Structure formats: structure tokens, C-alpha cells
Amino acid sequence: MGDRSVNFSFTEFQLIGFTDLKAYRPLLFIPFCIILVYTLFANGILIIIIAKERKLHAPMYILIGLIAALGFFVPIYFIPRMLVGFLWEMNTITRHECLIQMFCLHFSACFQSTILLGMAVDRYFAIIYPLRYSDFVNLTNSLIFFAILSIRNALSIIAMVGLVVPLTFCRTNLIYHSFCEHTSVVNLACNDITKNYLALTVAFGITSADCLLIFCSYVIIFVVIFRSPSGESRHKAIHTCTTHIMTIVIAYISVTAAFVGYRVATIPRDARILTSIMYHLVPAICNPVIYGLRTKEIRTQIVKYLLFCSCFLCS
Fold first, then answer.
1. Which helix (H) or strand (E) segment is 134 a member of?
2. pLDDT digits (tens, 9 = 90+) for 67-120
3. What residue intervals traverse the membrane (predicted)?
4. What angle do CA 171, 107, 154 make, to 5 degrees?
5. Would you say 68 and 47 are in contact if contact means Cβ atoms under 8 Å apart?
6. Which pLDDT score, from 0 to 100, does residue 250 have?
7. Each residue of 167-221: pLDDT tens digit?
8. Measured CA distances, 176 to 54, 198, 246, 248, 269 (Å)
């Protein structure tokens, strides 16, 4: 579409990601449908187990439950629309729907960073101050911690998305992406978008600050662990911390890959879209496996529920 007057602004966008694949584009329905079903099932099982088992109502398991909740809801924000687009070429999304989707995805990303920081803080007090753990990590302190950081996240993302609202999209309404990613939408605007990139930088800075705090916490934790005498408690602490670190590494490698993908011009645009999508999906895919296999208490309950379900189906 050609240039139009700046007094005109599109009210609908077309999400045309992966159209470079041409006739092969509909085949993407299969892997993404499998991913959607798997993430809903795996994370749903994790949520149910943690919610139903009273002995798992400890801070560490509640944080795992929150991670699972993100893994359950984030794919719902954009995969169903992708699947419809792949099969029936129904790629239209209204401006309001686009902004809501953008807010949900970016807020979820920030909230994931907050949960990972919460995991690091929980392990920090459990290992550095084991005798005073319950004084530091209790319901009141946990609620205050997450309330403050959630407000921080919300204000940052509201500002970021709010600055998109007044933009004029007069050149084109074609977004070469499969969901309303901030950079892809803002780059279509006819206005000065300096403030928009500043808001995005602030949001990225928040997750970077969380990452730095997480890194410092685990450096201190492992220094204390390796200075302590060998034994079962030391082995358990290492096992628990490495499980959390696996989750953290997966999350931050995904976001780094997506960030780099948009800033290296030689990377094909379909590859950029894929890294952006997997940034949201990889944690949702991997976390149930990590916690299901490496956390004994959760693994035991999963086996118990699966055996119960199999007996029920066979009866």
C-alpha cells in the first residue's frame, strides 16, 4: 500500500508472518498446534498438582506454580490466532486487539523475570540464613515483594504500550510477524518513535536489572554452598539451585536470541520471527520437564496422578 496522509491511520493490521514460505506456510499449523496442546497439558498438570497438594504450598513450589501459570496462558495469547492464519489466511487483527496482545505478552515477559528473581531470593535466604528463613520469606513479605515488582512491571508496560496508542499508521497495515510484537508495530508508524524505543529500553532494562540481581544472588549462594561441608544438605542445595538455574538460563537465552535477531540485518526475517516466538514458548515447553523430572516431590505426585488416570480409564 502506498503512502497516505498523516491524518489517516489504519484501524486493522494484517499479521503476515512466514509468508516467505509460500505454499509451505500451512504446514506450520502442525508443530504449533502440538506445542499449544503440550504446553496447556504439561503446565496445567503442574498447576493442578501444586494447587491440590498441601505439602507443596511452600514458597518455592508456589513460584514454580506461577511459572507454570505463565507457561499455560502465554501460548493462548497468540498461538490460536497463528493457527487460524496458517490454515485459513485469516490474518486480520484490530488495533485494539493488537495493543491488548502486546501488553499481555510484554507484561508476562516482565512478570517471568520477577518470578525468576523471586526464586533466587527464596534460595538466597534458604541457604544463607537457614535458621531465619521463615522470618524473611513469609506470606506478608512475599506479597509485598511481588506487589512492588508487579506495579513496577505494570507501569513500565503500560507506558510502553500507551505510547503506541497515539501513533499514526498511515503507510501500511502489513506486519511481517505472527503477533503484535512492539518493535514490528512501532516501525510501521509515520510519527517520531524515539519515545517508543526509549520506553522499550526501560522495559528491557528492568529485566536486565533482575538478571543482574539473580546472577549476584547465585554467585553468593554457590560460594556459601562450596564452602560448606559435604553432605546430603549440600547435595540437595546444589540440586535445587541448578534446577532453578536451568530455568533462568533457558529464559534469558531465549530473550537474548530474540533481541539479537532484530538487530542483525543478515538474519532472515522468518528466522527473526521464529526466535521471537520461541522466546515466549521455550520456557513454557521446557519448565514442566525440568521441574517434573528434577523435583522429587513434584515428580512423585505426577506419577501418582498419571497412575490414577490410567487406572480410571482402564476401569
1. helix 133-136
2. 999 999 999 999 999 999 999 999 999 999 999 999 999 999 999 999 999 999
3. 28-51, 58-79, 99-121, 142-169, 197-225, 245-265, 277-294
4. 105
5. yes
6. 87
7. 999 889 999 999 999 988 999 999 999 999 999 889 888 888 999 999 999 999 9
8. 47, 23, 32, 29, 8
CA angle 261, 263, 269 (to 5 degrees): 50
- For residue 87, the surrounding DSSP H or E stretch is helix 59-88
Tell me the residue type at 313.
L
Q: Closest Cα to residue 124, out of 56, 55, 60, 50?
A: 60
Distances (CA, A) of 99 to 30, 167, 179, 185, 187: 27, 12, 10, 9, 14
Strands 12-15 and 174-175: parallel
Each residue of 291-307: pLDDT tens digit? 888 888 888 888 887 78
pLDDT for 1 beyond 70: no
Strand order in the sheet with 12-15: 92-94, 12-15, 174-175
pTM assigned to the model: 0.90
